[in-house]
Amino acid sequence: MASPPFYIPFAHWDSTPFQPPYTSITTSKFLAEWLVLGLANGELLILSTATDEPIPRARLCGHKAPVVALESLLARTEAIEQELLLSLDSVGTLCKWSLADGRCLQNVYLTISTRPRGLRIVKKQKVDAKDPVVMIYGASTEILVLNAETLETVLLWTGNLDWPLPVVSGRSRVMTLLPDGQIQGWGLNSRRLEEGGRGRLALAMERDHTKQFLVEIKEDMGRIRGFERTSEKGYVIIQKTSVSSYVLEDAKFALKETVPVGLEIGVAGYQIVPKKGIRKALVMVWSEDGQTEAFELGENATFGHSIRLPLDPTRGKRTVISIACTRQEDKYLIAAFSHLGSSSGRERAHGDFLMGLFSTNTAGADIEWVEKNEALTSSSSLQDDITSSCSAIFANMLAIAYGSNIRFHSLSSFLLSYHEPIKEICVPTTACICLLKRVRVGEHVVHGKDAGIKGGKEYLIVGTTNGELFIIEAPSFQLSKRLSISSTAVCSANLLLSDLGKRLRFTLIASSADGTASIVDVERARIMVTFPSHDYSPLVSYATKTAQNIILLTYEDYIRREWDLGEEDGGVFKAPPSSRGSDRDRDTLGTYGRDLAEEGWREVCVGKFELVEEDREGEGDDTNGDGTIKNCERLCERGLPTASVNVRAVLDVLGHAVKIAKERTRASERRVVGNHPAFVTAKSLLTALVPGGTAELSDWEEDDYERQTSVQSLFFRRKKPAVLGQMGAGKNVSILAKEAPNEAEDGISSISPTVSACVLLAALSTIGGLLEASGNGEFFSNVIERALSRLVITKNEPALGVFAKYWMDENPIIRATARKCLSISIGTLSEETRTNTIAYWARFLPAQVPPELFSSKEVVRSVIILGQLIADHPDSVEQGLKKCIALSVELLLGDSNHSFQDTAIELVGHGWTTFQSLFDPFEVIHILIRISASTMDDFSEARRNTLNKCILEIAEKNSPLLGSGLANNISYGSSSSQPAALAAVSLSTALGVSLAAMRIVTMIVREDAILFRDVLSLIITAVVKILDPNGGLREKVMPTITELINEMVDAYPTIAFHRPTQRLALSISPGIIMIYDLKTSAEVNALQGHHSLANFLTFSIDGKFLVAVDLEENMFFVWKFVTGILSFIGGGNDGAPPILLPKRKEPFSNERNVGIVEIEWTGERSVKVTAGDQSTVFQNVDSTQGSGWNIL
Which residues form a coiled coil (predicted)? Predict the structure, then answer.
């Protein structure tokens, strides 16, 4: 089963100046304790407003285009209800963020095809209040409706005559305003589909014919800027030069008042600030020249006096970008973001962030603007504020470009000593480096986004802003001569496929911003041919054909040019067919896959056009040789050097070193030395995760000195750790501010439950690997307990969902740590928190979610958390929910998804004592056997081990029930012997299930034979039954039964088998030994005459005698089998087998009462019984006399 990624990003804010206009602010919004800024480069900056000074908390990097809208959304978490953030960018990407830990929870690409204008959140009717919807509207007549919980599309709302501006008018109620003044009411209604829809609810927008209005929109007041609801019945319409208030009453949309806006160049933006508890609001509008005006809207929907809030005119010419306002007690807090123009030609324009408090009673005269630019700017320790421009993985290191220099970092140096790179190369150029690309030449190279990554000799392609190219070779780091391809910035560099023509294979195609492209021989560092640009249009893609020296270039204006390089220098331009590049062939920008694929072309998009939807998650990704570090190129281009550390890969590399160390001869050398690269890397990661060392991680007691010393030695002392981040949905990275953990009372653990759980799991897993590597693995369990007990003391309970996420991780250390953390965390939950946790996760149980949400990640995690809860604390959950959890486990077990099955298998084994009374245990056993019957092609060894472990746990907790279930499946191929169940089983299915059940019995006998000691008669009876010659399965099951019987004879002294006669003897109970004939599948004799359980059964060589001992009485018994007509004498009228009494019954010497006796046939009729150091020989066992024995 593939484990979820376990990446933790780290970045360096201290080298990043962060201030407009480098990154302009496009939108802003005040939330409860936060000020959220949306930026032109797609980032979100979170500022804390809990104090007088706004403090940066996180940078959220989930968008690639300017952010245009922000909305808050209340959602329930494990313990509390928290405020989430929805952000929408100009290309339609929607992201959902957790503000508490700055993590991307969900993201959706290309929500609408036109330019988005905003979004609205609509709460549905009370019965469905937990599932609000999100409406995204733009420059289109369509509005997209998404489920706010899952961000899945639930409705594409069409039917509007023009571009609508929607406003929420109540629960499940929306009103739209068209540019011509038409207002229409709508209702969001749910309808349950018929049986074909599997009971799902479908949403529909239905026109409310009672709410159709027409308002006068005066053209001289400019176009409509906004349509908002201010109170239960009050609405405002904002135009370029006016604000109008309306009231909806008596089925009329009545105009109350229109006031002109005193802004010279008109309204550029607006915000409605409600007053909680009263039907009043503040309407704030601003223009781009720095003028701001506010209108107080009264209870009767009329405007009070206007408030002018001019920005400080002494600060120069200003362009207002965004304004956010919120109410604080009896005043308003306003934040203004602007762009200051330069007062002289030499001074560079810069951004400005001002905040102020004002009161409506003083008409804003009391406002004092305070500059807060320091909140947006991090101190830089680099000269001239040079920021990183690009990055790549090269020579197993992270290469980062600063100006014309390239700095190389190992994982350790990046995490702990960023300003001391391993190596630095100065590129001889006056321009800045704008592109770094790693390629490998010499082996097979695949096409697409992975071109140049697989195998071969490694090179680093360096591109500059003035069109220069340099090539660095590994491992010598030798820099090539300057290669000039253009006068504009290099935009892309892609390695061509290895199966092309002789001239093109293993060459590089590089393009610049003006569309100039060159074919470069990487190994010889020379330009082979340069293709001129086309009207300065950037190159979008190139296409090639197998075994040919031709290349097709596609430009941004849809023009294509085909070039034939032949076998000589240069290239020949080929005129394309007239059909190419026509409008009807245009799909999305720069992609002509439909035509090119038919003609045998293989197309690769380049540069910024490489971002196709299916590749978005992998955009900019690049890992080093062992996979421990992943490059975050897009963030580095924004001046935020970032790399994601793969915790699982770090532990895998360390585990490999431990495995090698344990193979050494000397015991003292069976540990990893401290300077081993894998050990150093793991220590660096641990130090970066927990900069405070053991004091931040755990509360130690006096008797923990040895453990604390061992753990403390795993941290580096001299360090300047990077800033922690998180990897969210869609691989979107968010970086916490450096001040965030430092100002938190308890460090990282107090920022949020999710951050606490992620860091704790990564740190403890790393400690576990390091302790094992250093030979102190016995301390690990105690370290986990100490770390979690500290969280209990500080009341910083971690998010259980994180531990559940890695509960089935493929790395044994991560898996064991996650399970231990989850178990301890569940056991230490307070009563209130446990109640909230159960209520939250119960919503996602498979038995309760609709079918379309069954694959959601929360579904599996809910089963893990609640399954663990009722397994360890069954009295904490009410009976109805217990049954729902058990049914959910059974649903996962029967699902076709292997990941779901493996999770359920683990839970079934762990909680069998509780689960067996909540679901049908025989059906669950049958499902486990069916899973085991899978072919080896789709059943890995790891899955087999997981299943075997589960079955062994069931056997330990209730072996009679498991034995009965296995017996049913062996003999009937079903979980039941009822005729209805048997009729539904085909012969092939019955065979597969029967064989799987017998293999499971064989496995249990091998692993722990004592578990099935009391159910042997059930198993043997089922085996004998399936050997019926008339059943049709005998020959097919014979090899498996032979293996099973051999294992049972070796494991149990109460079973004996005589292969020539195919007779099986089983001591089924005290006083009875049953003899089975496997040739006829029948019981042939019942041997009696002894009082206790007979042991150490042994057939004679010819199979005519069976001997056994009774250890309670120390008696030796001999039975002789009769054949022919005499064999039927003694049988019952009901078909019971004939009863045989012993031929001889003699005591044997066992003075020490040893429990293991050895019986050996020393001749055809003589037997030797050995008990410890005493032996007894019985001669002529066919005789009824007892005088023929000797004691040795």
Answer: none
- Tens-digit pLDDT profile for residues 1131-1143: 555 567 888 999 8
E strand or H helix that includes residue 883? helix 879-893
**Cα separation of 925 and 883, whole Å?**
17
- Give me the chain's average pLDDT, please: 83
pLDDT confidence tier of residue 1179, bands split at 50, 70 and 90: confident
Residue-range definition of the domain harbouring residue 1165 = 1053-1178
Give the mean pLDDT of 1088-1104.
91
Burial of 25 (0-12, 13-18, 19+ CB in 10 A): buried
Residues facing residue 38 across a β-bridge: 27, 44
Query: Residue 735 belongs to what H/E stretch?
Result: strand 733-736
- Whether 304 is in a domain gets the answer yes
Q: What is residue 592's predicted lDDT score, i.e. its pLDDT?
A: 43
Strands 490-495, 1105-1110: pairing kind:
unpaired
- Do 333 and 252 sit in the same domain of this protein? yes
Q: What share of the chain is helix, strand, coil (3-state, %, to 5)?
A: 30, 30, 40
- When pLDDT is cut at 50, 70 and 90, the band that residue 378 belongs to is low
348, 374, 400 - which closes a domain: 374
Other Cβ atoms less than 10 A from the Cβ of 1052: the count is 19
Residue 819 phi/psi, 5° resolution? Answer: -70, -40
Q: What is the CATH number of the domain that holds 523?
A: 2.130.10.10
Residue among 1047, 1041, 1046 nearest 1028 (CA): 1041
Burial of 861 (0-12, 13-18, 19+ CB in 10 A): buried
Please check the confidence at residue 683 and state whether its pLDDT lies above 80.
yes
Q: Is the peptide bond before 21 cis (omega within 30 degrees of 0)?
A: yes
> In this model, does residue 605 exceed pLDDT 80?
yes
Instruction: Count structural domains, the chain.
Output: 3
DSSP 977-1029: -SHHHHHT--HHHHHHHHHHHHHHHHHHHHHHGGGGGGGHHHHHHHHHHHT-T
